[in-house]
Amino acid sequence: SIALANAKRNKKIHFFALEGAEYEIERRVKYQMIAERFYSMPSRPAVYLNYMDWYHGKLDQELSEIEDEIDSTPVLFPTLKTYYRGQSFTATDFEKLFLGVKNETDLVVVDHLHHFDSDDDNENRAIKSIVKKISDCVLLAGTPVLLLAQLRKRDKKSKQLIPDLEDFYGSSDSGKIATQAITLAPDFKNYNPNYRETYMQVVKCRVDGSRTQSVGLLKFNYPTQSYGKNYYLGSLSVDESEFTPLDYSQMPRWAINALAGGRS
Can you tell me the distance from the alpha carbon of 4 to that of 25, in angstroms, rounded to the nearest whole number? Predict the structure, then answer.
């Protein structure tokens, strides 16, 4: 979603899909475009649009006109470049590829940290070494890297809505080395078949620690496989088990500036 949003702004993105099957990113980009056109139609086919059925070709007949229109475009997003791993992918492999594109990219996305290979038998030490290597590349080139990472399994007894910096799977140094860290977690309390409410929080911001005090609540739409544009900004209770939306008078200055810039 982040890569696509930036590609739509003509930013140059290099996406390292270490977990994905070949062409998975291209398929997901295409599906989002299909969904966008489908829901903008004043009169559309009476069909339940969903990624699984589309992926397996069950919606070919209903979506043929939309797909033909999209397929007529030679390259959907020419500024979005993808890389799919082979049998192995190490931090050294990343360094070589990164240095090869550092002058022709605005953002590198790596999905994800725990699909790097390492000869080190100590998993925590290996993860720390990989993150350190990526951080060194960023410092050397000045090019940002968005590195996705898994979180530890949630304790079923925990009432905490959002994981914190210590919840990244593996070495705790992963979060410590990062300049910024963001965690996302689904809202398990409220069920809806069409969307999943999702909490998002900046749990670390080295430049401005005050940015970590607010929490966002947004919706991930299942049929379109995308996040909605609108969201709530709020705060957590002392035990981090309850979310309370902020009213305008409580909004931090950076959020007010974002609203003034046309965001909601």
Answer: 10
- CB-based burial of residue 201 (10 Å sphere; 0-12 exposed, 13-18 middle, 19+ buried)? buried
CA atoms within 13 A on the CB side of 33: 20
- For residues 201 and 216, the answer to whether their CB atoms sit within 8 Å is yes
Residue identified by tokens 């590609």 is: 7
Note the pLDDT tens digit of each residue in 4-32.
999 999 999 999 999 989 999 999 999 99
How many C-beta atoms lie closer than 10 Å to residue 195's C-beta?
16
Give the number of other Cβ atoms within 10 Å of residue 172's Cβ.
13
Residue 84 to residues 23, 24, 104, 133, Cα–Cα distance (Å): 8, 9, 19, 20
Residue matched to tokens 């979060």: 175
Cα–Cα distance measured from residue 73 to residue 15, given in angstroms and rounded to the nearest whole number = 21
**Is there a cis peptide before residue 56, judged by omega within 30 degrees of 0?**
no
In the chain, DSSP finds a helix count (H) and a strand count (E) of 8, 10
Cα 77 to chain centroid, rounded: 18
CA 23 from centroid of its chain's CA atoms: 18
Write the pLDDT tens digit of every residue in 160-198: 899 888 888 776 777 888 999 999 999 988 889 999 999
